[in-house]
Amino acid sequence: MKMLNFDHCQEDYTRAYGGMAGRKIPIIYQNEAYLLKLPGNLKDRGLKNVELSYSNSPFSEYIGSHIYEILGVNVHKTLLGIYHQEGKEKIVCACKDFECNGGKLLEFRELKVSFSGDIVDSEGYDTDGNGTDLVDTLQTILKHPILQSCTGVMERFWDMFVVDAFIGNPDRNNGNWGILVYPDKKVSLAPVYDNGSSLNCRWSDERMKAYIEQRSLLENQAYRAKTCIYKLHGRNINPYHLIQGGKFPECDEAVKRIVSRIDLLEIKKMIDEIPCMSEIRKQYYKEILSLRMDKILEPTLNRIQGKKQENALNHIFGAEMRGADYKSDRILPKGKGKEPRITDQQEDVRDFDIER
Q1: 324-337 pLDDT tens trace
Q2: d(CA 139, CA 277)
Q3: What distances in angstroms separate CA 174 from CA 26, 77, 132, one per listed residue?
Q4: Which of 17, 59, 126, 229 has CB atoms 3.0–4.6 Å from 24's, for a disulfide?
């Protein structure tokens, strides 16, 4: 793999991009519009457990996006390269601008508050654009008129939930996914974008080395002590507990779609071919992805496939079928019926610092 040089690309300041995770410079590369994501400055932010001056988010964006691509999920195109700013060379990730084909991005946070439907979260409160309660989110997907007219929104949500768990992305906030609306009013899912918080982008090589050398720490970081941005009853969810729990049939379907496509050899080859990245970082990425596959995703897929076989046998022999607690057309907040549940394991959150 060759690192590209973006120093001489034309900059196009008629385009601008939001977000708080570092600078995003609009450029033209090979006659196409890209945004150049620079590493975020961490030095002056007073973040806990962060030793780096700049994040490794360009590596995380590139690797996370390419894993989505390997798994067959529509994702924005990313290129890895260098860019000189104020005399300093920086590793950057160029992300192709998917709005340039005529579609306008509507983020999920904008959609959540743009219709009159009665949506409440798992604690009974009204929805807002930034809230990430899981019940609130799923109700919005089911009830919003424009999302109902867009094919595959629920499937995309759960596919992202599973892949983000695999790549350790805690920041799929409501501004980090959405739909495209075209001038003729047609709509489609936007490509998956903004994967720069994946794979412990703020960790130093020294910290990664310490976790590699102590297996219990690595397993904690891989799945035991991790949460995502989504909540139930005011608590951030451990996505691995939810994936294992089998309470959401749509999540089980996403596991079947995604896990069967995971080729760890191809993913590890992609990581190994990246220049300018330390061998410790490559080893950490490969080991933590393997752990999540071996300990969570493969056993969950086996559980789902075994349940399907059991249900088929029950049908043949006339046994009573037992369905899951959750029904996608009956998502009810706490106190108003049976709510979705996850396992009761304590979530030991040691390093959860979402970048919004």
Answers
A1: 333 444 344 444 44
A2: 42
A3: 23, 21, 7
A4: 17
d(CA 167, CA 159): 12
CB burial of residue 6 (10 Å; 0-12, 13-18, 19+): buried
**Pair of tokens at residue 53:** 């001056």
DSSP secondary structure letters along 109-175: HHHHTSS----B-TTSPBP-SS--BHHHHHHHHHH-HHHHTSTTHHHHHHHHHHHHHHHT-----TT
Q: Which residues pair with 235 in a beta bridge?
A: 232
Q: Which amino acid is at 295?
A: K
Compute the C-alpha angle 335/237/305, nearest 5°. 100
**Closest alpha carbon to 245 in 292, 291, 298, 303:** 303
Give the sign of the dihedral formed by CA 48, CA 52, CA 55, CA 59. negative
State the amino acid at position 160 in one-letter form.
M
Quote the tokens at residue 21: 């995770």
CA distances from residue 287 to 37, 51, 98, 224, 279 in whole angstroms, order as listed: 26, 22, 32, 15, 12
CA 170/CA 195 separation, integer angstroms: 9
- Per-residue model confidence as pLDDT tens digits over 134-188: 999 999 999 999 999 999 999 999 999 999 999 999 999 999 999 999 999 999 9
Question: Are residues 58 and 39 in contact, defined by beta-carbon separation less than 8 angstroms?
Answer: yes
For residue 144, CA distances in Å to 98, 111, 173, 182 come to: 23, 8, 18, 18
Taking alpha carbons only, the member of 198, 52, 139 closest to residue 340 is 139
What is the full DSSP assignment across 284-336?
HHHHHHHHHIIIIIHHHHHHHHHHHHHHHHHHHHTPPP---S--TT----TTS
Cα–Cα distance for residue pair 129/341, rounded to 1 Å: 23
Cα of first residue to Cα of last residue in the chain, in angstroms, is: 31
